[in-house]
UniProtKB/TrEMBL annotation:
Source organism of the structure: Tepidibacillus decaturensis
Listed Gene3D superfamilies: Aspartate Aminotransferase, domain 1, Type I PLP-dependent aspartate aminotransferase-like (Major domain)
Coiled-coil residue windows: none
Assembly and interaction partners: Homodimer.
CDD domains assigned: KBL_like
Protein name from the UniProt record: 8-amino-7-oxononanoate synthase
Amino acid sequence: MASKVLDDFLKQNLEDLKSRGLYNVIDPLESPNGPIIKIAGKELINLSSNNYLGLATDERLKEAAHQAIEKFGVGAGAVRTINGTLEIHIELEKKLAEFKHTEAAIAYQSGFNCNMAAISAVMDKNDAILSDELNHASIIDGCRLSGAKIIRFKHSDMDDLRAKAKEATESGQYNKVMVITDGVFSMDGDIAKLPEIVEIAEEFGLITYVDDAHGSGVLGKGAGTVKHFGLSDKIDFQIGTLSKAIGVVGGYVAGKKELIDWLKVRSRPFLFSTSLTPGDVAASIKAIEILINSTELNNRLWENGNYLKKKLKSLGFDIGNSETPITPVIIGDEVKTQEFSKKLYEAGVYAKSIVFPTVPRGTGRIRNMPTAAHSKEMLDQALTIYEKIGKEMGILS
Ligand code: PMP
């Protein structure tokens, strides 16, 4: 018999979420997640995917995946340390190290579990972590899992970070102190102040950890935020995902050989969860080769991002202070933001609203993610719809 305690808990909490408009309704796609998607028979211009370079549907990646499936099958069959390491897993890790300009790299099944794995393999209850208050959920969970003392610093506030680094290191309470930041913050598109963070880390002897999920493939001509600032030899942990610009799925840490050796013996998802599938691995290798050898897709992404931003701004929208192609359109009021997104959908644009608690109250926004795969015509069409709804709702004069 089902548990009444569980039934009551679920009923109460689901109803509560629904009544507050916080229950996620999921719209399944009837098409690939490209620049145009199909939902419930309706074609929409897609401004909500992390497929920054359009590689999720690239023929070269599909072909590489097909070949790997023919050769190795669809599953790796075991965890990495039993016999789930295929030769292509090793090839992927070599390519990732080349891509990130580090000695070595280790692949995980997702960016999320990579953060859970990497932080807790190195930090423990005798340590402290200085974490930007806007860091991604997987970083927060990885920090919690480690048992280390979590000290949040104000978003990209270097005075606050310095003061907290000083206090933590001078207290003598902790064996190790780490500073963790996203490379690019996905809600606003701003870039972490890595040169200052490295300076503070050097002054106080901090371990440095950058999750570049949204910077890889985007900044540094594709190589990421750390390369963008020329700091490849100054960051201990370079985290990335294979699910955004790379277009597939998976996560990785790139760094010094000893660090990667340690993660291979101590990080739990590497030891206890089956490795990436052959198709994922081969497609990811192909994507990284494309990124190493050409900046064509990266250039197109920036062209599209700059175009969309310039046009939205000249229409009169508040697009915040993004430094990357991520383009928020800040509406403010939560209800209005959700209404705007709904109207966009009805008119043929898929662009999700992001409201409290994901972003601070009163800063509701539509987050637009232009990609290299969008044509100018698609962007122009979306802009026409934006202008019409902006006027209708009194957001534009
Ligand atoms: N880190 C950051 C900064 C992210 O934005 C995301 C994805 N939303 C992740 C990690 C998780 O990556 P994945 O989707 O590969 O699990």
